[in-house]
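Troubleshooting: if your tokenizer reports a length mismatch, compare your output against this known-good record of 372 residues.
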Amino acid sequence: MKFFLLLGWLVGFAHAQIQVGAILPLSGALASVGEVQEAALRASAEALEARGVVLEITLRDSRSRPDRAAARVQELLDSGVHILVCCETPEVGARVTPLAAAAGLSTLTLAPSTAADVTWLFALAPEETAPLERLSLETPLHPFGLMAPVGRAGDLAAERLQPKVGAARYPVARPPLTPEALQIATREPASVVVWDNGEGTVRATEALSARGYGGAVIVRADIWDDLNALERAKLTGARSVLSPAVLGYTLSDAHPSKAAVSSFRRALIVVPDGALTGAALAAGAGAWDAAQLIGSAAEQVLAYNVVTDTEAGREAVRGALRDALVTLGPVTGAGGTYDFTEGDFSDGSSSGLQPDSLVLAEWRSGRFRPLP
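Known-good structure output:
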């Protein structure tokens, strides 16, 4: 294989560090997310030193803007980095990853990827369909009803949640939703999935209650950060599919991510509580796991006494890291379990996060509690 040929070429060289370039939103609209990601990335790299793996991180600020992030790529290439951690949003990724790929640099992206035909792009964030795929695992025993607005998101939910006992689609921002709620409630599904924004979700949930539905209501995970205390109270008992990192100490000891989540959350003691939103925790877990994945790949590469202070050496290390990431197999981190063995990373991109490693949890008494 190409991996072993590259490693064979590297035998006999002196020990070296792995140079990691990172472009994170340290200022601008997403600075709170960047603060969590930076703390997680640095703490994760420090934890790797106990295993004898040294990652030297060169950090650049995207300022939460795609154009600024793109401008930082060449700076990192000039500094000789071997691999890139980047991209707080799909829009940033669409600007950054083609530039990195053109230079032969692999990217571990922390947001869902929308880039097409970009080589060696390893997405750590769940794809948009991942929560729905996780829910679909429940359908054989617990069929769903679906309430969703007309539009792409509703279409996607309807497609992924087959088989289902019924679906009520409604125009966006239509009040009230009691006819649609009645349509679903009378079918008596075990659960109803409400796939809408925060305001629409609260309206749909209240409509279900008004029509006597007493089963479980499952809502999107990305609505919670924008809800106020009263709106959250109205969703008491609602369920969402979450990154294990969001659950923190409430995660079951038996969950495969428990140890990684504990280490990740301890690393965030330096971050103000106000910055620890659900979105920031999920994104921060991606940064923690990115360093751990690079570290695991680096252990294979560094075992062959690599030198990286020449252009040829840098190119060889970049290729060896790419191949090592693909051949790692399943690796469990704070954000879930990743497996890149099935993706076609030589000509395209794919998320390695496995949907079945996400957690279904219930909102009760002001916090999420994982369900069995």
